[in-house]
Design a protein that fits this description.
- This protein is mainly α.
- It folds into 3 domains: 67 residues, no CATH class; 55 residues, no CATH class; 74 residues.
- It is built from 11 helices and no strands.
């Protein structure tokens, strides 16, 4: 039977739990998943995790050898050493004190909250905790006030409102940037012999049209977002 996929050696930079999740999928794909294949599971585990992990196991298990333990026992020893259960109080501290950083998008901020929440054991309270901290930590006070005024606010609604507002702000900045470029072009191409002492770039008909168009677009974008 051909081997399906591969698993690289475990390194200190990786998350142990995520590595084990991938390893379990490798076992499943190659039909290495029941008690009849226990020895094979152990052999594959000791082989693919790499030399440094094997050396670590020998140190943690001494005077026993890794081959004298089952796969589950080996996994538990490494789990306790590489990924001990987090202190819940510390996890709560980091979760409840995080704030959206300058330059951090709404989606990136929510992703950071979800990552921190993994250490908090919120259980059924998870979505409420994410919603509350998402609103509290937002940088944009305008959208924060709008969300705080909602009586039936869910995490999903808070996220989509914040995303829409963020998108609208970006569009406004793009429109304003484009209009400034057009005004600069008017300044560069005006005839100094005809307009000297008569009309400024800001008073040029084309410049006035651009400013009017800009105000109209900005008004529509902001109204749609709110």
């Amino acid at each position: 039977m051909a081997v399906i996929g591969s698993v690289a050696e475990f390194t200190a930079e990786e998350d142990w739990e995520e590595y084990c999740e991938r390893l379990e999928q490798y076992f499943l794909a190659n039909n290495i998943k029941d008690t009849e294949t226990e020895k094979r599971r152990r052999a594959v585990f000791l082989s693919v995790t790499g030399g440094k992990t094997y050396e670590l196991l020998k140190t943690l298990l001494a005077p026993q050898k890794p081959t004298e333990n089952t796969y589950e026992e080996l996994w538990q020893v490494l789990q306790n050493h590489l990924s001990p259960k987090p202190v819940v109080i510390a996890g709560w501290y980091w979760f409840w004190t995080v704030r959206q950083k300058a330059g951090q998008s709404v989606s990136q901020y929510l992703a950071e909250l979800r990552r921190l929440a993994e250490k908090c054991q919120f259980g059924n309270f998870l979505n409420d905790a994410l919603r509350d901290m998402f609103v509290i930590g937002l940088l944009d006070t305008a959208v924060q006030k709008k969300l705080l005024s909602e009586t039936q606010l869910t995490l999903d609604k808070a996220y989509h409102v914040a995303m829409s507002h963020e998108s609208a702000v970006q569009q406004v900045e793009e429109i304003q940037g484009a209009s400034k470029q057009q005004v600069n072009k008017v300044k560069e191409h005006r005839d100094p012999q005809k307009e000297k002492g008569v009309i400024s770039a800001e008073g040029h008909p084309m410049s006035q049209m651009i400013v009017s168009f800009e105000k109209s677009c900005v008004s529509r974008v902001v109204t749609r977002a709110m």
